[in-house]
Specification:
The complex is a heterodimer of chains A (92) and B (485).
Chain A lengths: L3 H10 L6 H18 L33 H5 L5 E2 L2 E2 L6
Antiparallel strand pairs in A: 1-2
Chain B lengths: L3 H9 L5 H19 L2 E4 L1 H16 L11 E5 L26 H8 L3 E6 L19 E2 L2 E5 L5 H8 L5 E5 L6 H6 L3 E4 L20 E5 L2 H11 L29 E5 L8 H16 L3 E5 L7 H16 L18 H12 L2 H14 L4 H25 L2 E5 L15 H6 L5 H6 L3 E8 L5 E7 L5 H14 L14
Parallel strand pairs in B: 2-3, 2-6, 9-10, 9-11
Antiparallel strand pairs in B: 1-3, 4-5, 6-8, 7-8, 7-12, 11-13, 12-13
Helix pairs in contact in B: 2-3, 7-15, 9-11, 9-12
The chains are: A mainly alpha (92), B alpha/beta (485).
C-alpha cells in the first residue's frame, strides 16, 4: 500500500518537490504502478540470478595518465562559475 | 526512396553534388518540420561544411566511403561536441557537450552529413514522443498520429525523407516501436555491440544505440559501421558476429523461425494477421515455422519497468543545476536549489519514473522488487537461450497495435506501458531485434514485425529481414514527404 507519506519520503530521497495538490494523484498513480509491478511476486522463483548481460568479468590494466579536458572547457556549461570552480550559492 | 547505396551512386557518378544534395534535404526540413516536428535542432552550417569537404574529395578523384556525404540525423540524447544535446528535457536546456559520442565520432570521421538532432520522449521515457519538452514528433503516414517513441523524431525524419537514416537508442523498444509506427526499419543491436559512450544514460544495462533506416540493407550498412569495440564503454565488444552486409542475401531455406504464442496474446487482430501472413511468406521461401510457449514473457513488462526506473533514478541523480543545463532561479539554500531545479526541470513522466525507481530501491522494498526483478531477468535470459535451441530467429509483432492518435498515450501510464509488451523482452535479455514493415491497417497506418536473434547474431536476423523485404517490397512504401531522389 503506497501512502501519501511514502510518496513524500520518496520525493525527499529523489530531491523532488511534490506540490500538495499533486500528492493524492501521484499516490494513486504510484499505487497502480506498484500493483502492476507486484505481478512478479507470482513468478516462479529463479535459481539463475543475474550479474551482467554478456558474462563479462573485471579485468585489470595499467593505470595510464591520459589527456583530460581543460577546466575552462568543462566550465562552459556551468550555470554559474567563479575562479575555475563551479559556483554553488547558499542563497540566490 | 533516398537509400544509402542510391545516394552513394549518385554522388560518385556526379549526378548530384553533396552540397546540392544537402541543400535539398535542408530545404525539405524547412518545409516539413513544422508538421512533423522530427528535428529539435537543425545543423545546416555544419552539414554544408561537411558536404563541401565531400565535394572536394569527389573533385580530386578520391574514392568515397559508402556513408560519406549521406545526410543523416542523430537522436538528441547522443553527445555532439559544441552542438546542443538536450534529451528533449528542460533540465538540459543550453547544454553543449565538449566531446562526441563514439557513434558520432565514427560517422563524423567518415564524413557523414549530420542534418540535426531529432526529437524524442524526454530522457527516452515514453512510447509516443509526446513527453518531449518540444512537443511530439508526428507520423509521416498521417500527422494526426504520433511517430511513436522514444526515438520518434528519427523515425519521423526517415519515414518523411528528411534524413537518409538516423541513429536512435532503444532501452525498451525505443528504436523498434517508432520504426514500426512510421513504416521504416529499426535495429536494436545486441547489448554490447555498439558503444554507449556519449549516449546520455536512461537505464545503462538496457540502453543500446542502433540505426533507423528505409531498408534492411541500410540498417546493415549503418550497423556494420558503428558496431566497433570501444575502450571508453567497458561493456562494448563490437560486432562479435562479424559484418552483416555480406550475409544479407544468404539462402534461408531450412531456417527455423520460431513463434512464441505469448507474443500474440492481446495483440490486435490486424497486427496478428499481418505477422502470421509474413510467417507464410517465410514458409514459401523454404523456412520452417516452429511454434512454442515462452510463459515467462508475461513477467517481462513489470521486470522491465522495475529495472529501468531503478537505473534511471540513479542515472538522473546527476542533474542538480550545478554543472550543466537548467538551474532554478529562486531558492533559499543548496538543497532547495537542487530540489527546485529538478522539480522545475524534469517533466511529469520523468519524475514519475525517478520516484518509482527510488521506491523499488529503498530499504524494505529492494528485495521484493529490484532483487526479484533482476533474478527474473536471469530466468528470462535462460528461457530465450532454451528457445534458441529450437529455432534460429523468433518472429513477433513489434507493437500490439498501430500508431495511436495524438494525445491518446498521455492519459494513463499503465496503458501506455502495455504498448511496450512485445519489445522489452529483447532489452531484458540483451538480444538483437529488428523491426520491419509487414503491412497496413484499414486506415493505412503501417504494421511492424520483429525478428529476434541470438546474442551477436545480427547477421541472421538481418538476413531473414532482407529476404522478407525482397519477397514483399510493397510493404516498404514511401510517404509523400521530403526529398525524392
Amino acid at each position: 500500500m503506497v501512502t501519501r507519506e511514502d510518496v513524500e519520503n520518496i520525493a525527499l530521497l529523489s530531491k523532488l518537490f511534490v506540490p500538495e495538490e499533486e500528492l493524492d494523484g501521484l499516490t494513486k498513480s504510484m499505487q497502480e504502478i506498484i500493483d502492476f509491478a507486484d505481478a512478479i511476486n507470482n513468478a516462479p522463483v529463479s535459481a539463475e540470478g543475474f550479474d551482467n548481460i554478456n558474462n563479462l568479468s573485471n579485468v585489470f590494466r595499467e593505470d595510464e595518465v591520459v589527456e583530460s579536458y581543460p577546466v575552462a572547457e568543462i566550465l562552459k556549461n556551468a550555470p554559474e562559475q567563479a575562479e575555475d570552480h563551479f559556483l554553488v550559492r547558499n542563497r540566490e | 526512396m533516398g537509400l544509402i547505396n542510391d545516394i552513394h551512386q549518385k554522388l560518385i557518378n556526379k549526378e548530384i553534388s553533396c552540397t546540392e544534395l544537402t541543400k535539398s534535404y535542408l530545404e525539405e526540413i524547412e518545409k516539413s518540420n513544422d508538421a512533423l516536428n522530427a528535428y529539435v535542432c537543425v545543423t545546416g552550417d555544419e552539414a554544408l561544411k561537411t558536404a563541401e569537404a565531400v565535394d572536394k574529395k569527389l573533385a580530386s578523384g578520391e574514392e568515397l566511403g559508402l556513408l560519406e556525404g549521406v545526410p543523416m540525423a542523430l537522436k538528441d540524447n547522443m553527445s555532439t561536441n559544441g552542438i546542443s544535446t538536450t534529451c528533449c528535457s528542460k533540465i538540459l536546456t543550453g547544454y553543449k557537450p565538449i566531446f562526441d559520442a563514439t557513434v558520432w565520432e565514427i560517422l563524423k570521421s567518415q564524413n557523414a552529413v549530420m542534418l540535426g538532432k531529432t526529437n524524442m520522449d524526454e530522457f527516452a521515457m515514453g512510447s509516443s514522443c509526446e513527453t518531449s519538452y518540444f512537443g511530439g514528433a508526428m507520423n509521416p503516414f498521417d500527422i494526426n498520429h504520433v511517430a511513436g517513441g522514444s526515438s520518434g523524431g528519427a523515425a519521423s525524419a526517415v519515414g518523411g525523407n528528411i534524413a537518409a537514416y538516423g541513429l536512435g537508442s532503444d532501452t525498451g523498444g525505443s528504436i523498434r516501436q517508432p520504426a514500426s509506427f512510421c513504416g521504416v526499419v529499426g535495429l536494436k543491436p545486441t547489448y554490447g555491440a555498439v558503444s554507449r559512450y556519449g549516449l546520455i544514460a536512461y537505464a545503462s544495462s538496457l540502453d543500446q544505440i542502433g540505426p533507423i533506416t528505409k531498408s534492411v540493407e541500410d540498417a546493415s550498412i549503418v550497423f556494420d559501421a558503428i558496431a566497433k569495440p570501444d575502450k571508453r564503454d567497458s561493456t562494448c565488444l563490437g560486432a562479435k558476429g562479424g559484418e552483416t552486409y555480406p550475409k544479407l542475401n544468404n539462402d534461408i531455406k531450412g531456417m527455423k523461425i520460431g513463434i512464441a504464442r505469448e507474443y500474440l496474446d492481446g495483440v490486435r487482430d490486424d497486427v496478428k494477421e499481418a505477422v502470421l501472413d509474413a510467417a507464410k511468406v517465410y514458409e514459401s521461401m523454404g523456412a520452417q515455422i516452429v511454434y512454442f510457449d515462452l510463459p515467462i514473457l508475461k513477467f517481462a513488462l513489470p521486470v522491465y519497468y522495475i529495472i529501468a526506473c531503478a537505473e534511471a533514478s540513479s542515472n538522473l541523480g546527476r542533474y542538480d543545476g550545478i554543472r550543466y543545463g537548467f538551474k532554478a532561479e529562486r531558492y533559499t539554500g543548496t538543497h532547495d536549489m537542487i530540489c527546485r531545479t529538478r522539480s522545475e526541470g524534469f517533466g511529469e513522466e520523468v519524475k514519475r519514473r525517478i520516484l518509482l525507481g527510488t521506491y523499488v530501491l529503498s530499504a524494505g522494498y529492494y528485495d521484493a522488487y529490484y532483487k526479484k526483478a533482476t533474478d527474473l531477468r536471469g530466468t528470462i535470459i535462460k528461457a530465450f537461450n532454451d528457445a534458441f535451441e529450437r529455432c534460429d530467429v523468433i518472429l513477433a509483432p513489434t507493437v500490439p497495435m498501430t500508431a495511436f492518435e495524438k494525445g491518446h498515450a498521455t492519459s494513463d501510464p499503465i496503458e501506455t506501458y502495455l504498448t511496450d509488451i512485445c519489445t522489452v523482452p529483447v532489452n531484458i535479455a540483451g538480444l538483437p531485434g529488428v523491426s520491419i514493415p509487414c503491412g497496413f491497417n484499414a486506415k493505412g497506418m503501417p504494421i511492424g514485425m520483429q525478428l529476434i536473434g541470438k546474442s551477436f547474431d545480427e547477421a541472421t536476423i538481418l538476413n531473414a529481414a532482407y529476404k522478407y523485404q525482397q519477397a514483399a517490397p510493397e510493404k516498404f512504401t514511401d510517404t509523400k514527404w521530403g526529398v525524392k531522389l
